[in-house]
Write a structure and sequence with these properties.
By secondary structure, the chain is an alpha+beta fold. It has 29 helices and 13 strands. Strands 8, 9, 10, 11, 12 and 13 form a 6-stranded mixed beta sheet that branches. It has a 3-stranded antiparallel beta sheet with strand order 3-5-4. β1 and β2 form a beta hairpin. α7 crosses α10, α17 crosses α18 and α18 packs across α28. The chain is elongated.
C-alpha cells in the first residue's frame, strides 16, 4: 500500500492476483483502502471457452490443422476452462502414453479418466489439514458425485445439524467445495471430486455406495420422495452391486425418462437394468419388460416404441400413437434415425469416447430443425436451448462443434435417407419424374470479390428456365416417384444442361418409365436408354411435327404438378434455395439434411396411415 501511494505519478504498474473466494480480512481491508484512494482497477479473469482451449492446444502442440475433436472435448470437459488444468491434463496424458505423436498427428491410445499427479497431490495436501470427520464427509461427498445433497449427507453420516454445518464450513474454507444452494454443495472442480474418489479401492467405493443407497431408501418415505430420488437410487444401487434393487430402480427410472422424452437418459438406465439382470442370472430385458414400459407410457398419452409393425414383427422398433404434440414428432424422427443408426454405426469408426450429444441425437436435431425451416445453425441451436425443448435433447453442442460434426456426418445422414427409402413402399414405384431446381450460393453483387472458393468447386452462372431465374451456383437434379418420394439426386454446376446431368441419373436404371420436361428431349438419349428398358416421356415442343394426344398431355401435366409440389416444399418449408454455407462441404451437408428430412416426413405419414402422405408440414406444426 505504501509503494502504490508513493508511485501515483510514476508510470508503474503493480499487478496483484488473488482468488475471488480467498478474500480474508487483511486482503479485504487492503482492497478497500485502494478503492478509497482510487488506485485500483479490477479485471475478472473468466474461464477459457472451448475455442480458447483449442487455441491453447494449438500453441502447445504446435498443431497446424485444428485440434482433434476427441482430444479437445476431453481436455475441455475435464479442465472446465482452467488453463492450469489444461496443461496438467495434457502433461498427464503424455506421461502415461495415452497421447502420442504418430506420423505427425497427436493421437489418443486409451480413453481412461486421468487425474494429473500434480492435481492429486494438491488435493491431498489440502485434505491432510482437515479433521478426520471432515475427511470422512468429503469421501462420501466424492462418491455421491460432483454435486451433493446436504440432507442425504446428513442421513448417511448421521451427524447433528450443528456438527454438519461446522464440517461444511471447514471443507469450504479449504477451497475444496462451494455452496450452490441451501441444501446443495458442489466440488469446486470436477478433478477435485475425481482425485478424492480415485483414492478409494473398488470394494471401498462399493461399500460407500451401499451406505448412500440405504440412506436414500430411508429418506424415500413416500411415493413422491421415492420418485424424487429414483435416479439416485438406480445409480447407487448399480454401483454398489445391489443387483435386485438396481434392476427395479433402473427399470422405473428408464420408463420415466422415456415418458419425458429424455431418450439418452432412458437408454442409460435401461442399459444398467440389462446388466443387473445379467448379474442376477436372469434373461435380459426383452418383450415382457418393454410391454411393461409401453403400458406405462401409453397411460401418460406419450408416443412409444413397438417391437416391429403389424405386418412384419421383425422390422425395427418404431413409435406408435398419433402425433398430437411437437414433442411426439421429435420422438418419431429420433426413433427412425436411431433405428437406422444401429445399422450405420458399425460401418463408421468413430475415434475416442462417445460425445455427450450422440450422433443420432445430433442428426435428429438437425433434421427436426430443417422441418421447421431453421436452416441457420445459430437460430437452430438457440431454439433447442429454450426451456421447453431442452428436455428433448439436453446436451446441445456449441455452434462450431455442431457445424463440424454435421459436415463429418453428411455421408451418414444420406445413408439414413437411403435406409428409409429401402423400407418405404412408395420408393418401389417404377414410374418416375426427373426435374431440377436452382441452388444459388451467393447474390450477383457478391460474386466479383467472393466467388473464388465456390468457383474452385465449379459453381457457375446459369439459368433456371422454369422460374425464369439467372443464378450463380448449382442446380439440384432430382429423380422422384410419381408420389413425390425423392429417389436420387445430383448437384451440378448451374450452367450444365439438364439433359447432360439427367443422363447420369437415368443410366443404371432398369425397367422404368421416366417423365421429364422439354429439356430432356433427345432422340439419341432415348435410344440409348431403351436398351436398359427405360422409357423417357416428354411433351414435344410446339414446333415439332409429332404431337401427343390431349389426354396424354393432361396426364403429363398432372405429373408435373406433383413435381412442383415437392419443389415448393423444398423451397418454402426446407429453404433449399437459401444458402448459409461457406463451402461446398457445408452446402452438401445441408442438402443431405433437407432431403433426408423430407423423406422421413413421408415415411412418418405412411406409418400413420395417412392417404395424403405429401402433407408433411402439419407434422412439424401439429398444434
Amino acid at each position: 500500500l505504501y509503494l502504490v501511494r508513493r508511485c501515483r505519478r510514476v508510470p508503474l504498474l503493480v499487478l496483484v492476483t488473488y482468488r475471488s473466494d480467498e478474500r480474508h480480512p487483511p486482503l479485504r481491508q487492503w482492497r478497500a483502502q485502494l478503492d478509497r484512494d482510487r488506485l485500483v482497477e479490477e479485471v475478472t479473469l473468466e474461464r477459457l471457452s472451448q475455442e480458447d482451449v483449442a487455441a491453447m492446444l494449438n500453441a502447445i502442440l504446435d498443431l497446424k490443422p485444428e485440434v482433434h475433436a476427441d482430444l479437445l472435448d476431453t481436455l475441455y470437459a475435464h479442465s472446465e476452462g482452467n488453463p492450469f488444468f489444461v496443461e496438467e491434463l495434457l502433461k498427464a496424458l503424455m506421461t502415461t502414453g495415452e497421447l502420442v505423436l504418430r506420423d505427425g498427428i497427436w493421437q489418443r491410445t486409451a480413453h481412461r479418466s486421468v487425474v494429473p499427479r500434480s492435481v492429486q497431490e494438491a488435493v491431498q495436501q489440502r485434505i491432510a489439514y482437515l479433521s478426520p470427520a471432515a475427511q470422512r464427509l468429503l469421501t462420501f461427498a466424492a462418491v455421491t458425485g460432483r454435486r451433493f445433497n446436504v440432507t442425504l449427507l446428513q442421513a448417511v453420516l448421521r451427524y447433528e445439524e450443528n456438527q454438519l454445518l461446522a464440517l461444511l464450513k471447514e471443507v469450504t474454507a479449504a477451497q475444496l467445495v462451494t455452496e450452490e444452494a441451501a441444501d446443495q454443495f458442489a466440488f469446486r472442480h470436477a478433478l477435485t471430486q475425481q482425485a478424492i474418489a480415485g483414492e478409494l479401492l473398488v470394494r471401498e467405493r462399493q461399500g460407500l455406495h451401499r451406505s448412500i443407497a440405504a440412506a436414500l431408501e430411508r429418506l424415500a418415505t413416500s411415493a413422491l420422495l421415492r420418485e424424487r430420488y429414483l435416479e439416485d437410487l438406480a445409480y447407487h444401487c448399480y454401483e454398489a452391486g445391489m443387483w435386485e434393487q438396481a434392476l427395479a430402480y433402473s427399470r422405473a427410472a428408464g420408463a420415466r425418462a422415456l415418458a419425458f422424452h429424455a431418450q439418452q437418459a432412458g437408454i442409460d438406465h435401461l442399459t444398467q437394468a440389462v446388466e443387473a439382470a445379467h448379474h442376477l442370472g436372469q434373461t435380459p430385458l426383452g418383450d415382457l419388460y418393454w410391454g411393461d414400459v409401453l403400458d406405462r407410457l401409453q397411460k401418460d398419452g406419450s408416443p412409444t416404441y413397438t417391437g416391429g409393425n403389424d405386418t412384419n414383427p421383425a422390422l425395427p422398433r418404431r413409435p406408435r400413437l398419433m402425433i398430437t404434440q411437437f414433442a411426439d414428432f421429435c420422438l418419431w424422427i429420433y426413433c427412425l434415425v436411431d433405428d437406422a443408426w444401429t445399422e450405420i454405426a458399425p460401418r463408421l469408426q468413430r475415434p475416442g469416447p462417445q460425445p455427450d450429444c450422440s450422433d443420432s441425437e445430433l442428426i435428429a436435431m438437425a433434421l427436426i430443425g430443417e422441418c421447421r425451416g431453421l436452416d441457420k445453425e445459430t437460430e437452430l441451436l438457440a431454439w433447442w436451448r429454450e426451456p421447453p425443448l431442452r428436455a428433448l435433447f439436453p446436451q446441445v453442442p456449441s455452434r462450431t462443434r455442431f457445424n463440424r460434426r454435421r459436415r463429418a456426418l453428411a455421408g451418414a445422414i444420406n445413408l439414413v435417407r437411403q435406409l428409409v427409402l429401402r423400407s418405404l413402399d412408395l420408393a418401389a414405384d417404377n414410374q418416375c419424374v426427373i426435374d431440377s431446381l436452382p441452388i444459388p450460393v451467393m447474390g450477383f453483387h457478391l460474386v466479383p470479390g467472393g466467388s473464388r472458393e465456390w468457383a474452385t468447386h465449379e459453381a457457375r452462372f446459369g439459368r433456371c428456365a422454369s422460374k425464369k431465374q439467372t443464378l450463380y451456383g448449382y442446380k439440384l437434379h432430382c429423380l422422384m416417384t410419381l408420389g413425390g418420394v425423392i429417389l436420387d439426386f445430383i448437384l451440378a454446376p448451374a450452367n450444365e444442361a439438364d439433359l447432360t446431368v439427367g443422363a447420369g441419373l437415368l443410366f443404371g436404371l432398369r425397367e422404368r418409365l421416366v417423365v421429364g420436361d422439354k429439356g430432356y428431349i433427345s432422340t439419341a438419349l432415348a435410344a440409348e436408354l431403351a436398351g436398359q428398358g427405360v422409357r423417357v416421356v416428354t411433351l414435344p415442343k410446339r414446333n415439332q411435327a409429332a404431337q401427343v394426344a390431349p389426354a396424354v398431355r393432361r396426364l403429363i401435366n398432372g405429373v408435373r404438378q406433383i413435381v412442383e409440389t415437392v419443389n415448393g416444399q423444398l423451397a418454402e418449408q426446407f429453404h433449399i434455395e437459401t444458402n448459409h454455407a461457406y463451402s461446398l462441404d457445408g452446402l452438401c451437408a445441408r442438402l443431405y439434411t433437407k432431403l433426408t428430412a423430407h423423406t422421413l416426413c413421408i415415411k412418418i405419414n405412411r406409418l400413420l396411415g395417412k392417404a395424403e402422405f405429401l402433407q408433411i408440414k402439419a407434422l412439424a406444426w401439429p398444434n
